Amino acid sequence: MGDSEADATGAETGDPDEEVRVWLVDRQSRDENLVTLVYATPDGQWHVRKQFSFQLLRRKPTTAAIDVDPETLEPVVGPEDRERYATQAQSMADDHDPDDQV
């Protein structure tokens, strides 16, 4: 890959279309109509949140992992959350294929 560099997610950059795989680490439903899915990098350093209505989730399966644009990732702030996300992401990666419905 020559001139490429590793970005903050650990993914090789150089290809602007390259996506980063993130694993489901948390599912929250604080609102009766919305579910928030949290996906994180295996090192627990970066995450992305996706909000869906319950109706949409019935039609669209939740998978163990998704591939996202690195620019959509946000840093995980607290060390406890980073450790928890890393543990959960690794567990999901060990137990599931990325496309497995969970």
Helices and strands in order:
Blueprint: E1 20-31, E2 34-40, E3 46-53, H1 54-59, E4 65-68, E5 74-75, H2 79-95
Antiparallel strand pairs: 1-2, 1-4, 2-3, 3-5
Report what the structure shows.
The chain has one domain. The chain starts with 19 loop residues before the first strand and ends in a 7-residue tail after the last helix. The longest helix is centred in the last third of the chain and has 17 residues. The protein is an alpha+beta fold. Strand 1 and strand 2 form a beta hairpin. Strands 4-1-2-3-5 form a 5-stranded antiparallel beta sheet.
Unreliable segments (pLDDT under 50, ≥5 consecutive)? 1-14
Extended strand count: 5
Please provide the ordered H/E string of secondary-structure elements: EEEHEEH
Spatial shape: globular
Q: Which band does the percent of strand residues land in?
A: 25-35%
Overall pLDDT = 85
Helix content: 10-25%
What's a concise summary of this model?
This protein is an alpha+beta fold and 102 residues long. The chain is 23% helix and 32% strand.
